[in-house]
Amino acid sequence: MRKRISLLCLTLATIGMLAACSANSASTEEKSEKKSLTFVSNFPSDTLDPQLNYTTVRAGIAETLVKVDEQLQIEPWLSKKWKTEDDGTTWIFEIRDGITFQNGKDLNAEAVKHSLERTIKESEAMKSALKIKKMKASGQILTITTTEPLATLPSELVHPNTAIIDVDAPDTKSKPVGTGPFKVASFKPDNEMKVKKYKEYWVGEPKLDEVVLIFNDDENARTSALQSGEADIVYRPAIESLNTLKKDSSIVVDIQPSLRNQMLFYNSRQEAFKDKNVRKAFDVLLNPKDVVDTALAGQGSPANGPFLKSLDFSNDQKTKTYGPSEAQKYLEKAGYILKNGKAIKNEKQLSFKLVTYPYRPELPLMSQMLQSEAKKIGVKIDIQQVENMDEYMTTKNDWGIVTYSLVTAPRGDAGYFFNALYMEGGAFNVGHFHEPALTSIINKLNKTVDQQQRNKLARQAGEIVEKETLHSSIVHPNNFVAYRDNVKNWVTTKSEYYVITKDLDVK
């Protein structure tokens, strides 16, 4: 708790002055009891529009119809129950009674309908994922009809980009009005935002009065903020600082396995990467264990595929041999000859641009490692760092590889990953691959409800992705957070969706 220091009234000349001093002290003491917390993260946020950014859900401003728990099972949130009719194209959601937006307006099915209509208007990725044909609202009942059977619709509605907001609020990009425990007080894009408690929150009054969220992509600056006491919670402090932080009795370090995968995306619109042997060369060029040891300082594990091995739909990958000599074999299959230290085909050296981004510092390091190893097989890589990777890789085609960090199974299911990366309109379909057999399996996956059958289909899809090397999974980084020991009820979530909650508190 941050307490403002008040001046004591030391000279009491009259009873009137005593009364005035007492009143002032009481007022100051009341202010001193204000509970405030500062959270510093590397999450970039140039907008609070929930259709374009996760921050609105992470900051406790807005909520979705459905959420995911720590066992990666979906559970009710704004919708207390749902069911499907017919062949899975008609879904009926019952919206909870007694919930209000932070401006006092009631939450009903009509408000949810308007919010989801805005979602599919503003986000092509969510339009593709939700496949909504039409919606009908009546009281607290929302009926959604999809363009095709979609067994995963409730899971898709966990996504933070489907957060429900009051679409009639004047400024949804910098001051969205949601139903969460905190409402926006101020926002400086890519810098800082402040939220204050919404006392009428439907689950109960939040424990904190306000939270300051600071965005900083410098891991060392984040670490210093925690050590100096300027920050209460720091998401992803500098990896090399973890041992030091653990020795500080006033700081708690929480390290958890992550659902993230640090991977390579290939651009099939670049001639070289149309050849799967070229892709396979880069798939085996880096030894994942070396990346864990070097770029992650041991905070992670080698990836055998996009999903953690503990998940039921993860493939049992074959053991691979890594290194430049193995990569060279695949380049030779693709028609490249090592001549004068250069990989040559059609009298041209294999060269391309690799794009990465700084707010995951292990990615530029991994990029440099790839560049160094590629030089050994005669390949020239130019590295470019960009601030907005999502925008760059979806609008530019001048790159051959991008390094990216993706939560591959945030809802405990493989459907999100395969739809996002390999279906037309998918949010991360930046490689522009079209594999008819893979598309067919994903379509079956989208229509299948039985979980065992879904797992089987997911593994089949994974086998195709691996065989064709449509991307390369390198490592699973650990998720780590450090916070002051006066912070209460912090939870490092697997999904990374829920950060500032009603129960978060300070002593």
Question: Care to describe what's here?
Answer:
The structure is a single chain. This protein is an alpha+beta fold. The chain is 29% helix and 24% strand. The strands form five sheets. Strands 1, 8, 9, 10, 11, 12, 13, 14, 18, 19, 20 and 21 form a twelve-stranded mixed β-sheet that branches. Strands 4-5-7-6 form a four-stranded antiparallel β-sheet. A three-stranded antiparallel β-sheet has the order 15-16-17, with no helix packed on it. Helix 8 packs antiparallel against helix 10 (324-333). The chain is globular and about 70 Å long. The termini are close together. Residues 1-31 have low confidence and may be disordered.
